[in-house]
């Protein structure tokens, strides 16, 4: 049986880059993968590397030169003998057909010239006839002969796949020749012979030196045409073998040797694109060209549908270079969501929020009239065209098939499924319930729940059918459509009542917590036992909850099913969430949260990044986990009483063992945050945390060692926060140094004499600055803040109000830097990038080392401090533009008495800390990307 389910894959050109990563991801998905490479030594080293990472037995090596038919035949014989079949072929082997000046390419990429279309590729590449011929032999004919040789083995698979790794440059708009375009786009008459004729003509023109006059690309001609030919061959093969899913894919501009590592995507992302295409369902597309279409800062990538080519494509070029049909482009990037039980409450609000973010949302409801009314209401609010209705009763399998068929026909895929439909499994007298609340009987413990709450076997059975089985059958019906998305998400709306401490039964808990043996069949067994005990009247004696038993167990089962699904579909992000105690019909509208807040939690999970969590249960009220409540209504009162203490929020402050950092920790902790106090010196950090605990902040402050100049400690901090808290709400980048050694007494004397106020002081006579101190200053003040932010942003993205505050200084204002070039870089908002800031800092260090600071327009005193703070202000603007849902600002806390100014400042730390905390607590519609001085927005 185990042998029958084994699956086999081959990846060509796989000893490095995208090929190697594709092997790793396929092996991680359970495939036995044949890693092939032209160079036997490098191929064996790559296999060894994968085995050491834990993939022993999943990867084997076989030498393959796709340009050599003998080695292709040898590979086929090996697979036939060893495995008897093949399931996936990834044709990844490829070369550029030119010699590239790597350094020059990187330099050009860093200037932004690629974005502006100002690159003369002929100056970066050297192309010869021999290189062009080799390029065609590998990129096109190599893929062709490998496919033809292995197809007989693929035909023995029940789900054969061929993925041809192509490129955006293979788009026909990059080939001027109308004749070549005509051959490639004539679908009715497209043949391998026709493609071969195009390639022969290209080589003939290359040899004659007539590329441009014959309409061929003037640069990278062989590479461009080989990839266009590969896309055409993909269509030919797909038509010839309708039982095989055959597609080509552009993995994106990935950092690989092919582009001298000037790409912008990691190989993990590129490999994921290839693997997603390799794992398409049996009814998935075939003969298509898939592209990675996310926008990159350095290379804006546009996705559009080219009617001539019959596929969605993307370009690194601007619209003025290649006009496109805007409506077709809008169609191409559309994304689709389904929300069940959505005619009111959290479901309706989830639909509204997703539609407001550009999704086309299918609002479903059991009652058609109420569902249509809900859609009308949303349309009237300005969401016309974004929301459509489809009737759905999740308890009725017959209504699921029409929904799936509707989505398949109308949209062709699905990106998000929100399983929201649910009921309480009991009935209650709302008026009596409210009267009890108003009488204060809850507080006195004088409530007879049996008089307020009615549970029957029929209601319990219906509860399980909707809350658990309804979500399960909806997911199963729509997963094939979700598999066609590049970022599939399932969010199961659960409840804190589904936590296992609400189920007394040790057996039921054991089933739900046994991760290794958790299966859908075991969940069915628990639910069957619950209904049996309900019918027999033996719930309490059998360890099931005595009140709201069906609701509690259904939500526990839903959380367990979430974990099962996440394990089964590792490329999905599947999570369950308790949206909080929201005012809805299910609790007679006595909840404490508005639906907007509850739905925001759901939508946040629906939009987690591709590397976000999966198989997790998110609870808004984290500190409720210790409550052993067997009644929803009793729990409601607990929530009402301790609401203010239950909403945990987390902050990190760097460089916080003293001064402004320590005071910022104190004020945030006093505002109810759990604060991670970080410091380079562990002893001083622990002492500072102890000091705060003794002042009455016990339990609010924890310490973690952090040297922002050391990437390893930054990674350790991120892991600590992820493990302990699961998210982060505020990051305060406070760590900083002066970058110089000064005469403290002389400095203090000057401050007291007010000479500094009249700018009559030459600080260079008081300060000693060295190259080492300067370099350290940049590493801590700028790069330290940058690496800390980058490491913690994934955790901040899980917050509903993420904040980053970069502690800067008035010294970082641009009027303190004489250089017009430097000012120009920092003030050019449109072209301001991290790469340009790096370029500036590199130039600064170079001039420092050469002793040419003043002649090059840098500050003569405290140059490292001034420039690092100016760079931090610039980075603040870059980040704010990149993360629009964050509030990211920099702040000058004022001339505060701290060690950095020898305690000669005029403001107490309380005032400086307050300015930082004010920015950390800005409302969600507050400013972002600004520089604050004395509570006011200042220019830079």
From TrEMBL:
Key words of the record: Membrane, NADP, Oxidoreductase, Transmembrane, Transmembrane helix
Q: Which residues cross the membrane?
A: 630-652
Organism (species): Prunus avium (Cherry)
| Family the entry assigns | Belongs to the short-chain dehydrogenases/reductases (SDR) family.
Please report the name of this protein according to its UniProt entry: Uncharacterized protein LOC110759311
| Organism lineage | Eukaryota, Viridiplantae, Streptophyta, Embryophyta, Tracheophyta
Q: What is an example of a Pfam family matching this protein?
A: adh_short
- One cellular-component annotation, GO: membrane
PANTHER family (alphabetical): (+)-NEOMENTHOL DEHYDROGENASE, OS02G0640600 PROTEIN
Q: Name one GO molecular function term.
A: oxidoreductase activity, acting on the CH-OH group of donors, NAD or NADP as acceptor
**Does the UniProt entry include the keyword Hydrolase?**
no
């Amino acid at each position: 049986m185990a042998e029958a389910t084994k699956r086999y894959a081959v990846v060509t050109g796989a000893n490095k880059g995208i090929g190697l990563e594709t092997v790793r991801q396929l092996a991680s998905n359970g495939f036995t993968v044949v890693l092939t490479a032209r160079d036997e030594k490098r191929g064996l080293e790559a296999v060894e590397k994968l085995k050491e990472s834990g993939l022993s037995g999943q990867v084997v090596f076989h030498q393959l030169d796709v340009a050599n038919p003998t080695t292709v035949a040898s590979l086929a014989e090996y697979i036939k003998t060893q495995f008897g079949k093949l399931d996936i072929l990834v044709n990844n082997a490829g070369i550029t057909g030119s010699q590239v000046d790597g350094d020059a390419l990187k330099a050009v990429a860093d200037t932004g010239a690629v974005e502006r279309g100002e690159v003369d590729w002929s100056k970066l590449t050297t192309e010869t006839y021999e290189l062009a011929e080799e390029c065609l032999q590998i990129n096109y004919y190599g893929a062709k002969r490998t496919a033809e040789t292995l197809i007989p083995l693929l035909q023995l698979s029940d789900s054969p796949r061929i993925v041809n790794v192509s490129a955006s440059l293979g788009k026909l708009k990059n080939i001027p020749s109308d004749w070549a375009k005509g051959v490639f786009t004539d679908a009715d008459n497209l043949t391998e012979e026709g493609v071969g004729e195009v390639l022969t003509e290209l080589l003939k023109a290359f040899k004659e030196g007539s590329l441009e006059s014959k309409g061929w690309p003037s640069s990278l001609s062989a590479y461009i045409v080989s990839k266009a030919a590969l896309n055409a061959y993909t269509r030919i093969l797909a038509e010839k073998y309708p039982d095989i899913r055959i597609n080509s894919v552009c993995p994106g501009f990935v950092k690989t040797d092919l582009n001298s590592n000037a790409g912008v995507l990691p190989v993990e992302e590129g490999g994921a694109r290839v693997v997603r295409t390799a794992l398409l369902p049996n009814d998935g597309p075939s003969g298509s060209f898939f592209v990675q279409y996310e926008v990159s800062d350095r290379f804006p990538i546009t996705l559009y549908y080219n009617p001539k080519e019959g596929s969605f494509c993307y370009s690194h070029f601007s619209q003025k270079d290649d006009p496109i049909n805007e409506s077709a482009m809008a169609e191409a990037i559309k994304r689709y969501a389904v929300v069940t039980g959505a005619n009111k409450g959290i479901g309706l609000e989830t639909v509204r929020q997703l539609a407001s973010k550009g999704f086309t949302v299918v609002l479903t409801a059991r009652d058609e009239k109420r569902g249509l009314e809900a859609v009308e209401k949303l349309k009237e609010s300005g969401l016309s065209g974004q929301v459509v209705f489809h009737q759905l009763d999740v308890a009725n399998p017959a209504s699921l098939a029409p929904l799936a068929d509707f989505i398949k026909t109308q949209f062709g895929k699905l990106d998000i499924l929100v399983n929201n439909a649910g009921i309480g499994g009991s009935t209650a007298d709302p008026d009596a319930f409210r009267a009890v609340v108003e009488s204060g009987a809850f507080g006195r413990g004088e409530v007879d729940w049996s008089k307020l709450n009615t549970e029957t076997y029929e209601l319990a059975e219906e509860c399980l059918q909707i809350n658990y089985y309804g979500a399960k059958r909806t997911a199963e019906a729509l997963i094939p459509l979700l598999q066609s998305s590049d970022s599939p998400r399932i969010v199961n709306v659960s409840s804190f009542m589904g936590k296992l401490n609400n189920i007394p039964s040790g057996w039921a808990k054991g089933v739900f917590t046994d991760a290794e043996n958790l299966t859908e069949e075991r969940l069915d067994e628990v639910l069957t036992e619950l209904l049996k005990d309900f019918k027999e009247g033996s719930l309490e004696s059998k360890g099931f909850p005595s009140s709201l038993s069906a609701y509690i167990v259904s939500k526990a089962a839903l959380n367990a099913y979430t974990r099962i699904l996440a394990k089964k579909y590792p490329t999905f992000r599947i999570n369950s969430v308790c949206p909080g105690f929201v005012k809805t019909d299910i609790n007679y509208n006595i909840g404490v949260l508005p639906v907007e807040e509850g739905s925001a939690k759901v939508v946040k999970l629906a939009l987690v990044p591709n590397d976000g969590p999966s198989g997790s249960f998110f609870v808004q009220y984290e500190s409720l986990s210790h409550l052993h409540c067997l009644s929803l209504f009793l729990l409601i009162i607990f929530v009402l009483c301790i609401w203010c203490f239950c909403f945990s929020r987390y902050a990190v402050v760097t460089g916080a063992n003293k001064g402004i950092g320590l005071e910022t920790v104190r004020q945030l902790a006093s505002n109810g945050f759990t604060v991670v106090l970080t410091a380079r010196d562990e002893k001083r950090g622990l002492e500072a945390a102890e000091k705060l605990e003794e002042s009455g902040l016990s339990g609010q402050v924890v310490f973690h060692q952090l040297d922002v100049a050391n990437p390893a400690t930054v990674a350790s901090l991120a892991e600590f926060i992820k493990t302990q808290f699961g998210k982060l709400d505020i990051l305060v980048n406070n760590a900083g140094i002066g970058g110089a050694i000064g005469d403290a007494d002389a400095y203090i004397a000057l401050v007291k004499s007010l000479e500094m106020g009249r700018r009559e002081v030459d600080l260079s006579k008081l300060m000693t600055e060295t190259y080492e101190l300067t370099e350290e200053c940049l590493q801590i003040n700028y790069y330290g803040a940058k690496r800390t932010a980058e490491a913690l942003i994934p955790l901040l993205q899980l917050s509903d109000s993420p904040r980053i505050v970069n502690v800067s200084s008035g010294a970082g204002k641009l009027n303190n830097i004489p250089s017009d070039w430097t000012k120009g870089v920092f003030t050019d908002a449109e072209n301001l990038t991290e790469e340009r800031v790096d370029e500036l800092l590199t130039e600064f260090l170079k001039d420092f080392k050469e002793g040419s600071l003043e002649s090059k327009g840098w500050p003569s005193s405290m140059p490292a401090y001034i420039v690092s703070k100016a760079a931090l202000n610039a980075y603040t603007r870059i980040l704010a533009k990149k993360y629009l849902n964050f509030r990211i600002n920099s702040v000058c806390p004022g001339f505060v008495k701290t060690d950095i100014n020898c305690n000669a400042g005029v403001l107490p730390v309380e005032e400086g800390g307050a300015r930082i905390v004010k920015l950390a607590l800005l409302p969600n519609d507050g400013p972002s990307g600004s520089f604050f001085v004395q509570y006011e927005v200042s220019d830079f």
